[in-house]
Design goal:
Layout lengths: L2 H15 L8 H6 L7 H6 L2 H10 L14 H13 L3
Helix pairs in contact: 1-5, 4-5
Length: 86
């Protein structure tokens, strides 16, 4: 896992999802951010869906990062999110 995936997550995702992925942040509660550590959700969601959510965003609560991040960076984020599963 490239170290930059954690740095990207911390810089772009942790505001809402928290550094631990549990979404226990003020912004996360306000925007109903997903708990990325939830094993049930992790088992149901595909890598493609994760990629598309990061790339294209999810409505007004999650911005699209496709213009900020390369496909390789998004792929690395998907792998990083998978490591958060509890």
């Amino acid at each position: 896992m490239p170290a930059d995936a954690k740095a990207t997550f911390d810089a772009q995702c942790a505001k809402c999802h928290g550094k631990d992925g549990r979404a226990h942040t003020t912004r996360g509660r306000f925007s109903h951010a997903r708990d990325l550590t939830n094993a049930g959700w992790q088992n149901e969601v595909s890598d493609e869906r994760l990629f598309n959510s990061i790339n294209q965003g999810k409505g007004k609560n999650m911005p699209a990062y496709g213009k900020k991040l390369s496909d390789d960076q998004i792929d690395a984020l998907v792998r990083y999110v998978r490591q958060l599963k509890k």
